[in-house]
Amino acid sequence: MGRLVRFTSPRTAEVVDFPDQPAGAGEVRLQTLYSGISAGTELTAYRGSNPYLNSEWDAERRLFVPGDSTHSYPLDGWGYEEVGRVESVGDDVDPDLVGRLVWGTWGHRSSVVRPVGWVQERLLPEGSTPIAGIFAKIGAIALNAILDADIHVGETVAVFGAGVPGQIVAQLARLNGAEVIVVDPVAARRELAERLGASLTLDPTTDEVAERVRALTGNRGADVVIEMSGSYQALQEAVRTVAYSSRVVAGGFFQGGATAVRLGEEYHHNRVAIICSQISGVAPVLQHRWDELRMSRTVLTLERDGRLPLRDLITDIVAAEDAPAAFEMLDSAPEKALQVVLDYGLDR
């Protein structure tokens, strides 16, 4: 039997058995080494605030509509930051794949079976540290926000939210030639952002962010602001911080109503564009060249080459059996950790 993380009800997680599958013809069986917890999307499922739990997603019309929810408890194997090793292969599959490291999305579970073509597209770059593979998708989410931001060399970029995606966004913006300002209320996250190259960090609980950024830019404001926290208060301050006729990229997963966002003030008078960045798609002008697979591969290659220090974001590595305690900690005291990783005890 395998083991997976199950959300049985809001704010209740447990680790349960599930039947292991062998690899069939054209398939590959992966044993999970590590699985990263997303403190944004996954916590919406853990808490019960995810819109898929409270309404129905009409995929044809791309609308949330009243009625039955798309998902309901129990929720098995949520998660999208996995890395594993090929344990066995089915018929008609190259046996040389056995032992190779693979990144992907298969949720918090000890093993999974995937088609060989899917696996071959997600082999971890040679020379990578195995645990780095957990950053493939969250790194793609961050890179997608950078592509949506359309950053130019020499511009000032403000990043709101210094959780894992915000930290990656800040590093990528700097690689794009920007002067980067990071905004977050947690001191340890601001300190890490500075160590990883941010020019300045601000505390939104004590600093007048929009005023400070304008003072630093000759009253112009940030050329682009990227909001990764999912906080409506942060989105409102991002609108106040960005320059006239410029863009705010909204990459956080917002929950509930946007009562803090005042569209009649700076948004209206400064002709601000709010651009949604979401991993289901790429900016239309880039869709002929970029997709999620390329974004993930790019991030992992930058990490392997030492240009994107992602492993510095890992604060906690815990046994996979201790997942319930990890989710409880992230829910009740998120400032205590950044990237939490579940260890399946096989990377020895």
Automatic annotation (TrEMBL):
The keyword Oxidoreductase applies. SUPFAM superfamilies: GroES-like (SSF50129), NAD(P)-binding Rossmann-fold domains (SSF51735). Keywords: Metal-binding, Oxidoreductase, Zinc. It holds the Pfam family ADH_zinc_N. Belongs to the zinc-containing alcohol dehydrogenase family. Residues 8-342 form the Enoyl reductase (ER) domain. InterPro entries: ADH-like_C (IPR013149), ER (IPR020843), GroES-like_sf (IPR011032), NAD(P)-bd_dom_sf (IPR036291). It comes from the Bacteria. Its cofactor is Zn(2+). This is Alcohol dehydrogenase zinc-binding domain protein. It comes from Kribbella flavida (strain DSM 17836 / JCM 10339 / NBRC 14399). GO terms for molecular function: metal ion binding; oxidoreductase activity.
